[in-house]
Amino acid sequence: MKSTPVPVERSEKLNLLDLDRKAMEAFCAEIGEKPFRASQLLQWIHQRGVDDFARMTNLSKALRARLADTTEIRAPEIVLAQRSTDGTCKWVLQTDARNRVETVFIPEEGRGTLCVSSQVGCALECSFCSTARQGFNRNLTAAEIIGQIWVARRELGEGRITNVVLMGMGEPLLNFHNVVAATNLMLDDFAYGLSKRRVTLSTSGIVPALDRLAEVSDISLAVSLHAPTDELRNELVPINRKYPIKELLEACKRYIGREGRRKVTFEYVMLDGVNDSPAHAKALVRLLSHVPSKVNLIPFNPFPGANYRGSSPEAIRRFSELLHAAGLIATIRKTRGDDIDAACGQLVGQVNDRTRRQARLQAASS
Ligand code: SF4
């Protein structure tokens, strides 16, 4: 385990981790280099994990010197690395002098999933979410998002990360441009080469951004639904007041309606006495009857100050059986890494809260 704070120096150099293929080709054109140089650079940086231009031996010495003068390859620094008894790894990454985000690797039989953050904190206020309590500071840059994979691969070794989920801290669709650039790199054969089925963006339902995403990307989609009615969802996922369930499901249908796209995964955190009754299960079945979907039931992982308790295993099993009986595909997410606070909904990082939400919550509880 490492836990030394790392001072983050400011830099004026262009960080090449920020550039997806299109941007890398534009950069190469700008410095008078042919487009194939972009592929070479992407391979060195992302496939081989090289951050020292001197090692990029198929580039001319002059180009290497020029790149070293004006650019850099800078991923966030690890300030804390923890490993759970079940093999889950969590890294706390320093993104600037006052902010940290968290990234989690979950190894399973035949696959390894990296859960990546997209913002420092979150501007939304889902009532069951520990990230929400941290408030919000800023969007992560594309370099800071893809840098989480770059760092994790360096730590884990090649071939361990087979899937990426944008389910860490933040609402990815509120950081649209940088998230799209980073996911482009995840899919690029000269970078991480993951299939679109293995890269999943999880959103609380920012409808206009979901439609924009459909225009530029075909990665897999997960939606944090958590309630079958607007009344309850307004309470659990307040962005629902702006984009209610009906609009959200229509946007989901538009997203998967495009060629080659599959089902939407609906995430449903199981909260004792709140959304876990047989009546809720039946309402969920009615709601999703016309959307190609699967439901992922998530046992609630409590955190200090949480206002909810998790549903009992029996209630989760009963809920799942009702969904199955109605023909829905439903899975129950295994809780992983809870001994290192790496389980779903527990990521907090360190947020220099510009929204003053932390202060408001403290005042309300004192
Ligand atoms: S659940 Fe997701 S969108 Fe909601 S507050 Fe937490 S991080 Fe933000």
Structure description:
This protein is of the alpha/beta class and 366 residues long. It folds into two domains: 15-72, DNA polymerase, domain 1 (Orthogonal Bundle), CATH 1.10.150; 77-365, Alpha-Beta Barrel (TIM Barrel), CATH 3.20.20.70. The protein is built from twelve helices and 14 strands. It has helices at 21-30, 36-47, 61-70, 130-133, 142-156, 176-187, 207-216, 230-236, 245-257, 278-288, 313-325, 357-365, and strands at residues 14-15, 71-72, 77-83, 89-96, 99-108, 111-115, 119-121, 136-139, 163-166, 199-203, 220-224, 264-270, 293-299, 329-332. α1 packs across α2 (36-47), α5 (142-156) runs parallel beside α6 (176-187) and α10 (278-288) packs parallel to α11. The model is unreliable at 1-5 (pLDDT under 50). The structure holds iron/sulfur cluster. Residues 122, 124, 126, 129, 131-132, 169-171, 204, 224 line the site of iron/sulfur cluster (SF4).
Highlighted features:
366 residues; alpha/beta; DNA polymerase, domain 1; TIM Barrel; 10-stranded mixed beta sheet; two-stranded parallel ribbon; 12 helices; 14 strands; binds iron/sulfur cluster
Q: What's the architecture of the largest domain in CATH terms?
A: Alpha-Beta Barrel
Radius of gyration: 21 Å
State the distance separating the first and last CA atoms: 35 Å
Basic shape = globular
Ligands bound to this protein structure: iron/sulfur cluster
CATH superfamily membership of the largest domain, which one? Aldolase class I
Report the major sheet: 10 strands, mixed
